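User: Some background: our group keeps a shared notebook of sequences we're curious about, and every so often someone picks one and asks for a predicted structure to add to the entry. Today it's my turn. The entry only has the sequence so far, pasted here. Could you supply the structure so I can complete it?
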Amino acid sequence: MRTWRFPRGFTLVELAMALFVIALLMGTVMYTLSAQNDQRMRTDSLRNLDEAKELLITFAIVNGRLPCPASTTTNGNEADAPLGSGSGVCTSGYIGYLPARVIGFQPQDGSGYGLDAWNNRIRYAVSITVPVNSATPRVCRGVLPSNLPANMHFTSKTNLKTDGIDCAPTDLVICSSSTGISPGSVPPSCGAATPVTNQNVVAAVIWSQGKNFASSRYLGVQGQAGDDERVNNKTVANSNHPIFVAHTPSPPGAAGGEFDDLLTWIPAGQLYGRLVAAGVLP
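Assistant: Of course. Here's the predicted structure to add to the notebook entry:
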């Protein structure tokens, strides 16, 4: 008598293990794809910031000055006083946005503000200090640092030409951490924090507030995930000072909090060099 043998199927345990392995592999693939996408978005945003920096310098070569930042109400145009005058008196020096319409930056949103790869508005700050020509060497600083200067240097064609290239900014400064900064000092400084730039280097800052801008809310304020990002989350009521923080990305729970902001800046020496090479200065 012949005995028939039927093929044995998978048991429930074997099927569950196979599904677990497949899920594990899929999770690994999805995580890798997500990490690659995040890196691509950061690279694209850095490219946007570099393009914005180059357009700002080009604007300075053509117009003899850096543009004022846009405000929340000027729709990608300069926020100066009187509005649209090109006077160089910026009304949103530290808390503004890239004036994308003025410099011809793309991409823009429907209101004319320049965007990073996450479709967040690119921020832009410019030195708004007043030259003090009696100093040796001459430097740019506020006559009364607690007051808004009446006449700027880097955003005024007349002042930039008259004051000359030995006039250095003293307000904008980049620090590696928010811990120990001194916004109330004269001039504001990194204080106990490690400086990324010296006090008299930065003429303008261009920055993206990163992927987490829309979702982060530290101390009840949108756009900041911790103390380090809070320094760069500039509004009238929040961090309205010329200190910035720049360092490599950090995860939630890190000292200073989660951080994914991206910054670049225009050194005064680079700006002067390009203006001299173009015959705009001295």
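Suggested note for the entry: The CA atoms of residues 250 and 259 lie 5 Å apart. The chain has one domain: 15-277.
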